[in-house]
Design brief:
467 residues; alpha/beta; nine-stranded parallel sheet; TIM Barrel; 18 strands; 21% strand; 15 helices; five-stranded antiparallel sheet
Length: 467
């Protein structure tokens, strides 16, 4: 940390100086407790699933701005050809984002393997594998077509051959592969066993998708990555077994191309929570939470992603089946305190609470330094995913800056977070440490919780292969 004025011109950082600066506009950050840090990069965002991207881009980028996120990366899931529909999604994304954005492309069909080079030509240089989707556990909601209101679903069969082919192809293209690492056979077997016992709740959900499934998948996929010299990024790690597997691999291989992400909910919640917390992989125990904090402290974890899912509570607690229903067709008005874990949807909103949670539970409680927070929420993701000009406040970089007040306390509510989602797992929590200004390429888009940016200011980041 340094004490200096940040000089911004034409959307770029022009200098850092201790001298007096004459400027057209200035923001005073001299008050104790205020710090200017790089805007957060959220590498793991699901939006465009329950509302079309032309609408979701506005609501979820507003939520991003509230939380100090200046770049959001969409996990695009298509149950059709990328050649047929990627341009449609890119075009529909224009004109709605308040913050900058990039895309990952999910590999869900065999034909997607042949389209990876096409995706690269469109600036998409990262690919997502869902090892968890196969057989009777292969159902998942897809991103719906732009301007549509009909939910889309598909049955995915991620074979071992597909996993290896995708990683090999990504390596050849000098791209990175994101991996949801759960073994589908273990999940299928254990889900049947636990359901037959008549169990319910998040503890049952955790037992039905045991950490051994993560452990086995990680061992398999890291072996493939090593054979091909590939870069892989293991998403949403939240169990001690998964972390042990990754630590053991990195310990054997030294500096590797295997990167690790966790999410705020694995640092704050356990399987004792209500059904709002259903997610995959599941929330685990207090010991697992402690282990994730340890992995953040010792450097095993590289990034924090939200795994944000822009859904509503009535849908989350509704039927949960992958059907072709219209948006808003669910009628469950519960609060998460009761219901059926087996039919509830997995996933919940979180993009607006990454920085507040990490500031409150991490920095202000002495678990991490502010410098480490910047690595986890901005610098590392920008480097890993080839986001040029992002991730640090440096001369020549985009002026993506967040002014945070470490002493500011706010009580979390859905209304505060400005998402399409009408609930949050942090509802009622008082968090200490909040963004008070969010600046994207030199322009203020959030001022003390109020959105002041213009719809459409956010820019698509077309990336180049990073290796």
């Amino acid at each position: 940390m340094v004490e200096a004025s940040i000089v911004v011109d034409d959307g770029k950082v022009k200098g850092l100086t201790r001298d007096r600066v004459d400027a057209d506009v200035s923001i005073d950050a001299s008050k104790p407790g205020l710090y200017a840090i790089p805007g957060a990069v959220d590498p793991h965002v699901h939006y465009g699933v329950f509302t079309p991207i032309d609408k979701a881009a506005e609501t979820e980028s507003r939520s991003a701005a509230v939380g100090g996120v200046t770049t959001m990366m969409r996990m695009l899931r298509l149950y059709s050809s990328y050649r047929a529909k990627l341009d449609m999604h890119l075009e529909a994304s224009k004109g709605s984002h308040l913050v900058d954005y990039a895309y990952h492309a999910s590999i869900l069909l065999d034909e997607h393997l042949d389209e990876m080079g096409f995706c690269v030509s469109k600036g998409v240089t990262s690919f997502k594998l869902y090892m968890n989707l196969r057989g009777d556990v292969g159902g998942i909601y897809m991103d719906i077509d732009p301007y549509s209101n009909t939910l889309a679903h598909g049955m995915v069969d991620t074979t071992q051959e597909m996993v290896e082919a995708a990683i090999a192809r990504a390596a050849m293209l000098s791209c990175i592969t994101l991996v949801h690492a759960e073994d589908p056979e273990i999940c299928s077997r254990e889900m049947k066993r636990v359901r037959e016992q008549g169990l319910n709740g998040l503890k049952a959900w955790s037992d039905a998708r045991p950490a051994e499934a993560e452990e086995k998948a990680i061992a398999y996929v890291t072996d493939i990555a090593e054979r091909y010299g590939a870069s892989i990024y293991i998403v949403h790690v939240g169990s001690s077994k998964a972390l042990h597997a990754l630590a053991e691999y990195k310990g054997r291989k030294g500096s590797s191309k295997v990167y690790v992400e966790t999410c705020p909910h694995y640092l704050t919640h356990t399987h004792c929570f209500d059904l709002r917390g259903k997610v995959v992989p599941p929330l685990r125990s207090k010991d697992d939470v402690a282990m994730v904090w340890d992995a953040i402290s010792n450097g095993l974890i590289d990034c924090i992603g939200s795994d944000h899912v822009a859904n509503r509570l009535d849908m989350k607690l509704g039927s949960g089946s992958c059907g072709g229903s219209s948006i808003g067709s669910s009628s469950n008005d519960g609060d998460g305190s009761d219901g059926d874990v087996w039919s509830a949807l997995a996933g919940f909103p979180g993009i607006a609470t990454i920085l507040p949670v990490m500031l409150s539970e991490g920095v202000n409680k002495g678990r991490i330094t502010l410098e480490r927070l910047v690595e986890l929420t901005s610098l590392n993701a920008a480097r890993i995913f080839g986001l040029e000009g992002k991730g640090s406040i440096a001369v020549g970089n985009d002026a993506d800056i967040v002014l945070v007040d470490l002493d500011r306390e706010k009580r979390v509510s859905p209304e505060l977070l400005c998402s399409y989602s009408d609930y949050t797992i942090y509802d009622g929590w008082v968090l200490k440490g909040w963004p008070i200004y969010t600046i994207v390429r030199g322009r203020v888009v959030m001022d003390d919780g109020m959105i002041v940016g213009e719809k459409g200011y956010g820019k698509y980041i077309a990336r180049r292969p990073s290796r």
